Structures are given as C-alpha cells and as structure tokens.
Amino acid sequence: MDEVKQKIIKNKASTNILVVDDREDNLLSIEAILEKDDYNIFKANSGKAALKVLLQRHDFSLILMDVQMPDLNGLETATIIYERDKLKSIPIIFITAYTNDEEFIFKGYKMGGVDYIYKPINPDLLRAKVGVFIELYRKNEQLLRNEKKLLTANNSLQNEIEERKRSEEKIKLLNKQLLENNLHLQRANEDLDQFAYVASHDLQEPLRKIMVFSDKIVSVKNDDSEVKKYLNKISSSSQRMQLLINNLLQFSRHSVNSADFINVDLYELVNEVINELEVEIEKNKTIINVAPLPVIFAVPHLMRQLFYNLISNAIKFKKKVGKSIVDISAEKISPLDYKPQGKYVDGINYYKIVISDNGIGFDEKFSEEIFVVFKRLHSYHEFEGTGVGLSICKKIIDKHNGYLTAIGSLNKGASFVIEIPETQGKDVA
Predict the structure, then answer these.
(1) Where are the domains of the chain?
(2) In this model, does residue 204 exceed pLDDT 70?
C-alpha cells in the first residue's frame, strides 16, 4: 500500500494546474485547498497574465478560470487559449458567482469549458472535480501517446511491407537473371563440349597416322633391335596418348556414375604408370619408392590419370643437382580417429596416400593456387606444361568424394596428400 500511495503522490506532484483570478485572496484560497494533493500550482491575476504564462509553457493538466475579470474575462481568455493547437486539450473549469444563468453557462460549455465551480467555493467539491478532470486528462494524454505509437508502428509496418515488396521484386529480377545466366551457361557448356569433341578428333588424326606408320616400320624386316625398341615406344606412347585423349573427352563430356566404379589395385596401377614414365625416369635419374598401396573402389582411368600427373610432376620439378627421389606411401585411417578436411561418410574408412619428392618445392602460400586451372608457378621456359594437370587431379579426387592438398617448402620438396574413401556411398560422383 505504501508503494501505491507513493506512486499516486509522485503523479500528483508532476501535475501542473494554472489558477486564474483577479483577486489575490481567491488565488490563495484555491491554492490552500489543493495543496493537500501536492499539485504544482501556478497563479495568474488576469487573463493577460494567464496567456503570458501559457506562452512560456503548455504542460498544464487543468486550468481553473475565474469568469468575472477586468479587461479579458474568463470566457474571452479561454477562447484565445483554445486557438492554440498545443493548448486545445487542456480542460478548463470556470469559477463563477452566477448560479442560475443558463445562457451564461451555455456560452462556457460552447467555447470549450468542461465544468463550473460556483462561489463560494466548496473545498471538497473543488478537490473532487479537480481530481476527476486531472485523471481524465491523464487518460486522454495516454491515449494520444498510444495513438502516436500506433501510428509510428503502422508507418514502420507499412515501410516494412513496402521494403518486402521491393525485396520480392528484386528476388524476381535476380531469379530471372539467374535463369538467363543458366541458359547462357548451358549454351557455353554445349559449345565447350563441341570444342572438346572437335579438338580431340583433330588430335587423334595425326596420332592415327603415327601409329599406322610406326606399325609399318616395325613390320619391316630389320635387324636393328635398337630402332625397333624406340619405334615400339613411339607406338606405345601414341596409344597412351590416344587413350588419354579419349579419357579426357569422356571426362569433359560425361559425368561419372556408379557403374564406372570398380575395385582398383592402386599398387598395380601405380607400377603401370611408372612403366609408362620409364623414359622420363631414366632421363632425370629419378628413384621412385613405392610402398604397399590399397585396393579401393574407384574409376580406373581417372585414377591412372591422377597418379600419372602427380608422379610426372614430382619427376619434372627436381633440383638441378643431387638425386631425385619420389616416395609413394599409404596408410588406412578411420573417421573415428581422424576427420578429413571436409565432410566424410560415416562408417567408411579412408586412405591417406602421400606422394612426396625432394625437388624444388614451392612457397606454402601457393598451396591452394596451384590447383587453379592454367595456374603456373614457373615460366614454361623453365618447365614444360600447361598448368592443367593439377586442376584435373583436384577434379578427379572431388569426383571420388576425397580431398587433395599440397604441402611444400622452397628448395625442400613437395608432398601431395590424397585422402580418399575405401568405398563409396550410395550416391557417387
């Protein structure tokens, strides 16, 4: 109860009342009656004085106005007060000695007055009426504040609706642009497929001729075994190149599906790749150490291309002096003990295969860039190549739901780490 009483007193203390009367004794009398309720009483001894007060402040909850005053009477003063928008909501109670003049009372109500107090003033009646109109004024002000809040909220909601409409229009426009871009991309892919087909066809034509003429030379009776040896290598290389072109064509034109995956013995496959690289290995005097490698579920020709690119890369980027050594190793890892770089399939083991060399290496900051198509860290005058090999490797590993990373250091060699699942899930490639 004490808290409620204090709250009421606090509200009353913040309530301002303007009392207007030309007689000082009346002003003091009204102030004495209302001081018990802790209102803030402001006094004015004329209509002009009241207007002067209201020019300086307008935070009054009630005006008590004597009707009979010289110069400006109460009704005239009230008329001027209500001409100002900021003062229109302040209730005015007229104080008059006329008790039976209905026409006079009608004028007061007509110009905006809310009630009358008759002289001599009854203190209890004055306090009661003041309390009622003060409370009505507060409620009215609260309603006005709530109305402003509602208007603000409504405007905010309206703005939000308009913004949402604009966003929807933007989304529609973006979707339209996306469809157009998709169509453009589809046409570009079709053009690229056509280009790949024509390019592969044109590349195979001279290869066929090389193979035909090499076979004719080999079939000619000649005791020069060295010539036949190299002619056989030409024929073998031509066949490998033709196979590579066909595989690249298939790789660029068709997505890999589950029917392409079979069990692949990587140890056997890597040794076949090494045999294909025999000339380069001898030329660069490279020593290749191959540890036992696993059998995995993969696409054979893509795995062959992957290891061919990575091993030939290790041979190519050797130091100018010293022995060139390439080590190939593998270890089985469980997703329970080790998490690959990205997502992995629950319950499927992974193999970590590392191809490392002691060559010129590369700056660690380029470990991601070297997989970008056509990206070269060295001039083609220094090392042959197109800058496509490693990007193809990355794509092959992606199609096997694996991960390929490069670790290197300048003049300290490089390592390519393959993390590949032993088997594939239901949805592959």
Answers:
(1) 2-121, 262-421
(2) no
Separation of alpha carbons 366 and 12, rounded Å: 76
User: Per residue in 223-265, pLDDT tens?
Assistant: 677 677 777 777 777 776 776 666 566 556 546 677 889 999 9
CB neighbour list of residue 257: distance below 8 Å, 6 or more residues apart: 428, 429
Residue pLDDT, tens place only, 362-420: 877 777 777 764 444 443 334 444 456 787 888 889 888 888 988 888 888 899 999 99
52 phi/psi in degrees, rounded to 5: -65, -40
CA distance 174 to 167: 10
Q: Is 9 left (phi over 0), alpha (psi -120 to 50) or beta?
A: alpha
Mean pLDDT of 98-123: 75
32 vs 335, which has greater pLDDT? 32
Cα 339 from Cα 348, distance rounded (Å):
11
Pick the CATH number of 262-421 from 3.40.50.300, 2.60.120.10, 3.30.565.10, 3.40.50.620: 3.30.565.10
Question: Are 157 and 135 in contact, with CB atoms under 8 Å apart?
Answer: no
For the segment(s) 2-121, the CATH number from 3.90.580.10, 3.40.50.2300, 3.40.50.150, 3.30.70.920 is 3.40.50.2300
* 3-state SS, residue 16: strand
Q: Collapsing DSSP states into helix, strand and coil, what is residue 17?
A: strand
Whole-model pTM over 0.85: no
Angle at 372 between CA 369 and CA 378, to 5 degrees: 65
Asked whether the beta carbons of 311 and 345 are under 8 A apart, the reply is no
